[in-house]
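Worked example 3 (structure in, sequence out).
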């Protein structure tokens, strides 16, 4: 079961590019940038020689002047070549990506896409501000707080962080506006939809049941980057971008930073961490790749009908691992040699009780009220250690289900399966499961909302 988090990028990130002192190529200020699929990016996009340190980037370009070109417009809101150059620099720093002649087109395409999305977000939020008549867009003070948090995570002051970005050629205003768009959108999605989402017991039980059913499948602890073909302009551009990102990752770019900046999977907000998964949760092409990979390795780009995946396999567990099952029971003791009438009466008593039991929450309270029935928590046990009378039923039952009456040497029993997990799995509480499911739904809402805005907007790429 994929454990997904809200698909809005978290901002208090570590900034690997500041540590690596990466230099980002500037887009020329007297000409429009090359098209996203250009085969010959600007010469200054080439990486430095391997035996020399990357040169310090020039100071941030001067604000746009008369020579600035319009590269795009979003509902008549202009994106200039200066804006694009700045976002490319910032994107490379935040993802720890070393710009090269090969990856410049993908870096430019991602930078332009993120600028378009930021314009759409802020336009929508300002429209809502007028209708709702309260502040939605993050204030300067909100942005300052976010910069302070990010600086602390990088063992810096806010002034040092902004100065370091300036040295890499990124103006403070560029960084501030990206933060403003992201935290404003995150708050809006959380505030508008978060309180409306109610995760019910049936959803939690279904999650637990699926987790139990997956216990006998191979399990993989993975990180994921997904390049959405629809977002980047088609299947081949998605594969091209994934190819460049794999090269960057193999050259040392941090996986989490790359996922946060480039991935369209909901796990991007968590640095691409998908947790433990089993076959069937990702496209079949990903399943096949995982089956052939060794722990600690990075996949090549994995093409699918929707785009391209990059997977980092952290750990791998074979099928048939230990299955741990938590049980409760209600029992009626029947002494050895008891008359058949007593045996039949004990069974009938549990058959009458069973329809009243609905999972583990009130199991003991309800069963304990019936005269002659002993109810209790059996705790967690390895399935292979269960007695034959219990084993087959416990393995077959889903979480929350109650068995038919089971016969043992001591009498008759009803058992309820409260949880199942395989060895190495991280047990999640009901609250943790509810939070994960809620985050998954908010992520889908955010993506659909933004997609609808884009479909209804007037977007021109020049």
């Amino acid at each position: 079961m994929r454990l997904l988090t809200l698909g809005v990028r978290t901002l208090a990130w570590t900034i690997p590019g500041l540590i690596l002192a990466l230099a980002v190529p500037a887009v020329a200020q007297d000409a429009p940038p090359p098209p996203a699929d250009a085969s010959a990016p600007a010469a200054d996009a080439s990486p430095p020689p391997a035996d020399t340190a990357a040169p310090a980037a020039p100071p941030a370009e001067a604000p746009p002047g008369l020579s600035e070109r319009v590269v795009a417009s979003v509902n008549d809101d202009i994106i200039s070549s200066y804006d694009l150059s700045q976002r490319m620099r910032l994107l490379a720093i935040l993802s720890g990506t070393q710009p090269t002649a090969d990856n410049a087109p993908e870096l430019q395409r991602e930078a332009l896409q993120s600028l378009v999305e930021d314009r759409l977000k802020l336009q929508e939020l300002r429209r809502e501000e007028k209708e709702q008549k309260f502040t939605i867009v993050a204030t300067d003070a909100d942005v300052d707080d976010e910069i302070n948090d990010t600086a602390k995570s990088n063992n810096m002051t806010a002034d040092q962080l902004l100065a370091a970005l300036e040295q890499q050629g990124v103006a403070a205003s560029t960084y501030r506006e990206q933060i403003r768009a992201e935290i404003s959108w995150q708050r809006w999605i959380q505030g508008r939809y978060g309180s409306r989402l109610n995760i019910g017991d049936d959803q939690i039980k279904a999650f637990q049941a699926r987790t139990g059913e997956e216990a006998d499948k191979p399990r993989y602890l993975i990180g994921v980057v997904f390049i959405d073909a629809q977002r980047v302009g088609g299947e081949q551009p998605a594969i091209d971008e994934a190819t460049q990102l794999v090269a960057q990752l193999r050259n040392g770019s941090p996986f989490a930073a790359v996922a946060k900046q480039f991935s369209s999977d909901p796990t991007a907000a968590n640095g691409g961490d998908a947790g433990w998964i089993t076959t069937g949760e990702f496209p079949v092409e990903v399943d096949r790749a995982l089956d052939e990979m060794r722990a600690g390795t990075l996949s090549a780009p994995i093409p699918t009908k929707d785009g391209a995946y990059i997977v980092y396999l952290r750990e791998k567990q074979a099928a048939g691992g230990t299955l741990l099952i938590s049980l409760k029971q209600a029992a009626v003791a029947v002494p050895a040699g008891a008359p058949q009438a007593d045996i039949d009466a004990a069974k009938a008593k549990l058959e009458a009780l069973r329809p009243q039991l609905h999972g583990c929450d009130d199991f003991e309270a309800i069963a304990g009220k019936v005269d002659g029935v002993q109810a209790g928590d059996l705790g967690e046990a390895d399935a292979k250690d269960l007695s034959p009378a219990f084993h087959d039923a416990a393995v077959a039952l889903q979480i929350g289900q109650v068995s038919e009456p089971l016969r043992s040497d001591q009498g008759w029993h009803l058992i309820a399966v409260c949880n199942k997990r395989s060895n190495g799995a991280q047990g999640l509480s009901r609250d943790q499961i509810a939070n994960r499911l809620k985050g998954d739904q908010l992520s889908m809402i955010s993506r659909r909302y933004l997609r609808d805005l884009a479909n209804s907007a007037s977007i021109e790429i020049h």
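Notes: The chain has three domains: 23-196, 201-320+431-454, 323-422. The chain has 15 helices and twelve strands.
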